Structure formats: C-alpha cells, structure tokens
Amino acid sequence: MPYVDRQNRICGFLDIEEHENSGKFLRRYFILDTQANCLLWYMDNPQNLAVGAGAVGALQLTYISKVSIATPKQKPKTPFCFVINALSQRYFLQANDQKDLKDWVEALNQASKITVPKGGGLPVTTEVLKSLAAPPALEKKPQVAYKTEIIGGVVVHTPISQNGGDGQEGSEPGSHAILRRSQSYIPTSGCRASTGPPLIKSGYCVKQGNVRKSWKRRFFALDDFTICYFKCEQEFETSLANIVKRRLY
C-alpha cells in the first residue's frame, strides 16, 4: 500500500500498462509529489537504483482531469485496475489489492483536485490588482477609441478621432491607421504570425465547458485585446506558429 516518505511524498509500487491497449503491465515504483506538482515512476525504489538514475515516466498533476476505477469493459481481466485521464491520454494502473486501489485513487484525485469557489468567488486581492495594472508608461498614454472590423480575415483596429471621423487628421478616406493581424489567424504561406501586444497576465485557471458543464484546467493568456486559453502551457508556447486560438465562450 502507498506510504508517506520523509519528504511528505506518497510512494509505492504499482503496475502500469506499457502502452494503452497493449495489455502488458510493468512493475514500477511511483512517487506522488504534490510540491513538485507531478507523478513520477521509476524502475525501482530510487534508493536501490544507481546514482543518477532518473524516472522512466512523469505526469504533471495539472494535466490530470479525472482518476477513476477502471470498468470491467475497459480491463476485464485486470483486477484492482484504475485509470488516469490526462489531456488526450489514458494511463491504466493496477494496484496490489482493493485497499491499495482505493488509497491511490483518493490520493491522486485529492492531489489533482479542482476547487471552484462558491458564492461568486473570492474578492480580488491587492497584489492581484497590482499585477494587472498597466506599466507606468502605458498609464500615461491617452485613451483612444477604436472601431474594429474584419477585412479579408484580418482584424483591423481603426482609431476614431475626436471629431467623429475615422483615422488620423489628414489621412485619406477609407485608409486604416492601424492594421493588426489577429493571433487566431494563421497565414497559409507558413510565415510566422505577429506576436501581438505584450501579455498582461497568463497562467492556469479552471473553465466550465459550454456544453458539458464540467470544470477543467486550462492555460489562459490575457493581452490588451483578447483573452484565450489552451490545454496546457506547452501548447501556448508553440501557438504563435501552428496552433489556432480558441474562441472564449
């Protein structure tokens, strides 16, 4: 059964399926480290391994959406089996007995638990408000009203002058002073899209689905014009080249 080591990590042996639907389970030593936000597994207890031997597998707890006992239909010939759902993958693991199974499922669900504040949520702290505040150089910048249009798949922001006209004084009729390509538009030529305005804030939040009302962790990014979300931070980091922004509902 799992035990807690001196570093307050939950440890123990489990059998993990080598590849999904392969039916081949391998004995591995697991460490659930909530401080490092990850689940690691080794060939054996690290104390018995050679110096420098690393983990053979790892899974960030942030990616786990659900841990549940496997149904007989999923694994009919594997008793005490449970499944970890993480992003688009499933990890099937086999415990030693029923108590071992229950302890691991509860520990993993608790470690990856998503909590949503009730009653409208908690008030925003002063530190959060300060972090969202614009830099001093931007605060001194006069506010300008913009008209937003979509022309040929490109988002166009046109300044509206004080006299009610579009664009700057002296500009030709119909010209646009500012053209900014939306990051949700990926050029077909394969060239790199514009990075757009600097980020105001980014990080993990929980989002309720539009159709299925379940809550899931997503990585959010906020700039001056848009807020978008991704499955994980790695997807966000590569989004400028080959990932389309998802519309926020």
TrEMBL record:
Q: Which InterPro entries match?
A: PH-like_dom_sf, PH_domain, PI-Interact_SigTrans_Reg
CDD domains in alphabetical order: PH1_TAPP1_2
Q: Which Pfam families match?
A: PH
Location of the PH domain: 7-113, 198-249
Q: Which domain of life is it from?
A: Eukaryota
Descriptive protein name: Pleckstrin homology domain containing A2
The species this protein belongs to is Aotus nancymaae (Ma's night monkey)
- Top-level taxonomy: Eukaryota, Metazoa, Chordata, Craniata, Vertebrata
